[in-house]
Design brief:
- The termini are far apart.
- The protein is built from no helices and 11 strands.
- It is about 0% helix and about 45% strand.
- By secondary structure, the chain is mainly beta.
Length: about 130
Amino acid sequence: QLQLVESGGGLVQPGGSLRLSCAASGLASGFALDYYAIGWFRQAPGKEREGVSCISARGSSTNYVDSVKGRFTISTDNTKTVIYLHLNRLKPEDTAVYYCAADWRPFANSCTLTTGPYKFWGQGTQVTVSS
């Protein structure tokens, strides 16, 4: 059973940066996150969970919600077991709990920012942007 653990959240001033990590465990032998589409989502108090960014299986494509384009970047490490979300030029409206999620999609060259297809979820990490 795939398990995801997020880390890297914290309190940062507006304009600051953070790097969130999503570490995978429980992968079947010989498999890496290459076979999964990975999404980053966030949920602010009183709001619905929204898709922030995603990367398709094998990293062939990425997608970002308009509000973070040019500020956030999704990437993987060399082992393909950790997915990062680099948050730059943070704004107070970026404050939320950030979640990573995985969807088994080995043959897809795209990814979605909707929550429905993602079967595996982490527990979330809090990001607070405030002066």
